[in-house]
């Protein structure tokens, strides 16, 4: 299960302070030290850890805790709130254009789960939001990606625009969006190419695609299992493309949690969805407060 180690350590730390009728500065110091170690061990970015621990230390010796009748529980509330804030406070919704179709461009490295997530998101939009989405297969460098999206489209009985692997991806997305307009789709989801590493050619091509269709939402798909690498990748994409949100995939795996807890603070981009398995319906809207409560038990 994701966050297992982190959850265990934080819960153990919190249970020590929970019942305390009085919380001394030494208690706070000890708690902060343990929280710091737990976060570092969960592969959370060290700058993020430092800021986080400073915040809870400050708040835990502040009046809201010291003057409370249940200071131990108040400390836990502080940690819970700060964890929630760290992941973005509130649910962040998918963009919706004033004039349909809303163009959503999916970007990310190969293997991050981009193609699967495009299909999952289309399914989510139709089932949960009563939308009529269309998919566009523009990952021309991984031939299997186009077949994969076509297969998923068939399974879902959802239209997939594709022009094979020889077409120019910029033309594909442009024509795909035109077709979505002509056919009155309210969302059009573009599956773009990824590579094994971020490189200039990839970024240039994605920029051209983005300039051509001016997406309302650029969703960066990152694999939560890759920890701080995911955060570095996110930083690079975010610096070069108009990223507007993140999808964290493979949160069902035994990720330590570093990516989920660092990405928002490092990139200032909200996590909008979480991939919770390989199946088409295993995509969830990301709720920071629920995730924080899951970690703190
Ligand atoms: P792409 O290269 O970025 O398009 O990646 P794919 O969509 O082909 O996904 C790569 C692998 O990750 C596939 O085996 C997917 O089934 C798997 N995958 C994608 N999302 C998730 C997820 O949320 N959980 C799990 N366990 N596997 C996922």
From TrEMBL:
It catalyses: GTP + H2O = GDP + phosphate + H(+). It is found in: Cytoplasm. Belongs to the GTP-binding SRP family. SRP54 subfamily. GTP binds at residues 108-115, 191-195, 249-252. One of its GO terms (molecular function) is GTPase activity. Its EC number is 3.6.5.4. It comes from the Bacteria. Keywords: Cytoplasm, GTP-binding, Hydrolase, Nucleotide-binding, Ribonucleoprotein, RNA-binding, Signal recognition particle. One of its GO terms (biological process) is SRP-dependent cotranslational protein targeting to membrane. Composed of three domains: the N-terminal N domain, which is responsible for interactions with the ribosome, the central G domain, which binds GTP, and the C-terminal M domain, which binds the RNA and the signal sequence of the RNC. This is Signal recognition particle protein. Residues 270-283 form the SRP54-type proteins GTP-binding domain. Part of the signal recognition particle protein translocation system, which is composed of SRP and FtsY. GO terms for cellular component: signal recognition particle. Involved in targeting and insertion of nascent membrane proteins into the cytoplasmic membrane. Binds to the hydrophobic signal sequence of the ribosome-nascent chain (RNC) as it emerges from the ribosomes. The SRP-RNC complex is then targeted to the cytoplasmic membrane where it interacts with the SRP receptor FtsY.
């Amino acid at each position: 299960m994701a966050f297992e180690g982190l959850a265990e350590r934080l819960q153990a730390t919190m249970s020590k302070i929970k019942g305390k009728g009085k919380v001394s500065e030494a208690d706070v110091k000890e708690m902060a030290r343990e929280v710091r170690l737990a976060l570092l061990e969960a592969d959370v970015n060290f700058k993020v850890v430092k800021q986080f621990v400073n915040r809870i230390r400050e708040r835990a010796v502040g009046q809201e805790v010291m003057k409370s009748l249940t200071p131990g529980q108040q400390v836990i509330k502080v940690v819970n709130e700060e964890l929630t804030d760290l992941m973005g406070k509130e649910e962040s919704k998918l963009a919706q254009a004033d004039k349909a179709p809303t163009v959503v461009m999916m970007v990310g490295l190969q293997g991050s789960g981009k193609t699967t997530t495009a299909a999952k998101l289309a399914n989510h939009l139709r089932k949960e939001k009563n939308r009529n989405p269309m998919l566009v297969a523009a990952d021309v460098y991984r031939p299997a990606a186009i077949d994969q999206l076509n297969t998923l489209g068939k399974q879902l009985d959802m239209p997939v625009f594709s022009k094979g692997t020889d077409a120019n991806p910029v033309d594909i997305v442009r024509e795909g969006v035109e077709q979505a307009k002509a056919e009155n789709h309210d969302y059009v989801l573009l599956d773009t190419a990824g590579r094994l590493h971020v490189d200039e050619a990839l970024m240039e091509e994605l920029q051209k695609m983005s300039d051509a269709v001016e997406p309302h939402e650029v969703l960066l798909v990152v694999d939560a299992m890759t920890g701080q690498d995911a955060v570095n990748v996110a930083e690079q994409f975010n610096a070069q493309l108009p990223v507007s949100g993140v999808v964290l995939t493979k949160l069902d795996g035994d990720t330590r949690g570093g990516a989920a807890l660092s990405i928002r603070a490092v990139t200032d981009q909200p996590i909008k969805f979480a991939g919770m398995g390989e199946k088409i319906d295993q995509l969830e809207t990301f709720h920071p407060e629920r995730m924080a409560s899951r970690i703190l038990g």
